[in-house]
Amino acid sequence: MLEAICKHWEGPISLALYLSDAEAQQFLRYAQGSEVLMSRHNVGYHIVYKEGQFYPVNLLRNVAMKHISTPYMFLSDIDFLPMYGLYEYLRKSVVQLDLANTKKALIVPAFETLRYRLSFPKSKAELLSMLDMGTLFTFRYHVWTKGHAPTNFAKWRTATTPYRVEWEADFEPYVVVRRDCPEYDRRFVGFGWNKVAHIMELDAQEYEFTVLPNAYMIHMPHAPSFDITKFRSNKQYRICLKTLKEEF
């Protein structure tokens, strides 16, 4: 995904990688052999060495956040491609919505494709026609609608100005925030509730959620993670997650 993300996003990137020693060496060789990556001077690679049996997703997010050198950050995941031009659009939106002096989280609406070869929409109009044709869906439409329902995709279709939405349980949008935003709770490892908890924290700290009318990102398909497989097959795993949720 990395080269593809770099082609879509010309701004700085802080990337956390969870690797063994051997994988770190392999990654280094890959990066040094990549024209796309070697031409960039604004990508920071932060390696967290593998330890234990769970994927420490929120620790990785905190590591990436800690090394940010810009006043604002767009919190994304590796399996998403931002729309072309998103970096410039976000820079303008941050000023327009006075992020410097207000507690806001700007939402970039998330979509997904189930096709490995996607001709990426160049505009919102093109994205909407792909939605109508069924080439694209709103993110997690089939599995976990609650995660993005408050974004109000029906309203977004015709929106031309940013609009405010209210937090609801299990909301997990991708957001732009100031760099002083709260950290992720690192107790959440593996699959489940890791981003939901962070958005809930933002709401508890009275952040205002504002949806951007001309921004979008698209989730690219991939094989299920080791952790979601464990979550689905292991009752104990689900009980542990439930306990952790209640503690949180």
TrEMBL record:
Q: Which InterPro entries match?
A: Xyl/GlcA_transferase
Q: Species lineage, top-down?
A: Eukaryota, Metazoa, Chordata, Craniata, Vertebrata
Species in which this protein is naturally found:
Gekko japonicus
Which branch of life, at top level? Eukaryota
Could you confirm whether the keyword Membrane appears in this record?
A: yes
Please classify the protein's predominant subcellular localization into one broad category.
Answer: membrane
Q: Name one Pfam family in it.
A: Glyco_transf_49
Q: What is the name listed in the Swiss-Prot or TrEMBL entry for this protein?
A: Glycosyltransferase-like protein LARGE1
Q: Specify the protein's topology with respect to the membrane.
A: Single-pass type II membrane protein
Cellular location of this protein?
A: Membrane
Entry keywords, A to Z: Glycoprotein, Membrane, Signal-anchor, Transmembrane, Transmembrane helix
